[in-house]
Amino acid sequence: MKKKFVIGSRESALAVVQSRMVLAYLKEHCPELEPELLTMKTTGDKILDRRLDQIGGKGLFVKELDRALGEKRSDLSVHSLKDLPMEVPEELPVVYYSKREDPRDVLVLPEGRKTPDLSLPIGTSSLRRILQLQEIYPGARFESVRGNLQTRLRKLDEGQYGAIILAAAGMKRMGYEDRISRYFSIDEVIPSAGQGILALQGRKGEDYTFLEGFSDREAFYAAAAERAFVRWLDGGCSSPIAAHAQISGDILELWGLYYEEETRTCRKGRKTGPVCQAAAIGIELARELSEAGEKDCVAEEHSAAAGQVRENGGGRNRTGEEKDR
Ligand SMILES: NCc1[nH]cc(CCC(=O)O)c1CC(=O)O
């Protein structure tokens, strides 16, 4: 008799495609298991008209999945790592990280267009994206767009936005790659920590080694560095932070962005070190950027610091912003 193995997933099309990747792996490599999906609507999926930081942040997307896993109605949760809160319950640890899909952010245009109409707003709900895109599209207006990928694409095609910004990973996994009109390099738009990586979350003490082949060494180290960076800076608040690590051989290179609400200053930095020091590199870069901040604050009393976020972006568009969703 095959043993049932239930994979818990959000019910959005992207979440299901991602969970099916794990399901397909199990079907191919673990003939003794009978994998199936258990999809659920999370609180975050139901509330679409408010900013995430007003309704409770990332945790809203995982609570239902955590409960199912804890109550053994499922055996594994599959998450986009970037949507997973920094702290997961001790009894429900991340057991593996998938190989990373394209981590870049991309520009998507209304169907049939070749260039963005910048008299219309650019759709994104992420202050991290807005901060960096202001440099690329000076003078552009930004407006929140929430909902799942299909909903966002529909709103774009209906003419509400000149363009929208999305993660390449979701577009590629959904088979929408041909709608991508521009890829932003890692230097242009530093991605959200974990973007493109799937996190497999299990129950503490259980054996998941049959999934080892699905996991990826580079993603593991990148996740460690990126999440250490965010954890050190965030401390539960909702300021925009970006972190992306690349690994070549035994060297890890980490890009970080930190925005200080108080002084409205955006700082980017980069740090390199041995992969085995992944988390320490994240903490060091976080510390460097926030300490640079203390100096900037003083300087700013005398002159508007370079790199400061322009008033028209950081200010006017505040309503309707949340972190990446
Ligand atoms: N915020 C929603 C979300 N969560 C994960 C992805 C894409 C897949 C990934 O980054 O792993 C997306 C869509 C997007 O930001 O465009």
TrEMBL record:
In its UniProt record, which GO terms are filed under biological process? protoporphyrinogen IX biosynthetic process
Record's catalysed reaction(s): 4 porphobilinogen + H2O = hydroxymethylbilane + 4 NH4(+)
Task: State the needed cofactors, names only.
Answer: dipyrromethane
Domain (Porphobilinogen deaminase C-terminal): residue spans on this chain:
221-290
* Enzyme category, top tier: transferase
Residue positions where S-(dipyrrolylmethanemethyl)cysteine is found in the record? 237
State the source organism's domain of life: Bacteria
Task: Fetch the Pfam families from UniProt.
Answer: Porphobil_deam, Porphobil_deamC
Task: Identify the Gene3D superfamilies for this entry.
Answer: Periplasmic binding protein-like II, Porphobilinogen deaminase, C-terminal domain
Under which EC number(s) is this enzyme classified?
Answer: 2.5.1.61
Stretches the record annotates as Disordered = 300-325
Task: Output the InterPro entries linked to this UniProt entry.
Answer: HemC, Porphobilin_deaminase_cofac_BS, Porphobilin_deaminase_N, Porphobilinogen_deaminase_C, Porphobilinogen_deaminase_C_sf
GO CC term (a single one):
cytoplasm
Ordered alphabetically, the record's keywords are: Porphyrin biosynthesis, Transferase
Q: How does the cofactor bind to this protein, according to its record?
A: Binds 1 dipyrromethane group covalently.
Q: What does this protein do?
A: Tetrapolymerization of the monopyrrole PBG into the hydroxymethylbilane pre-uroporphyrinogen in several discrete steps.
What's in the misc comment field? The porphobilinogen subunits are added to the dipyrromethane group.
| Assembly notes | Monomer.
Please identify the protein, giving its name as recorded.
Answer: Porphobilinogen deaminase
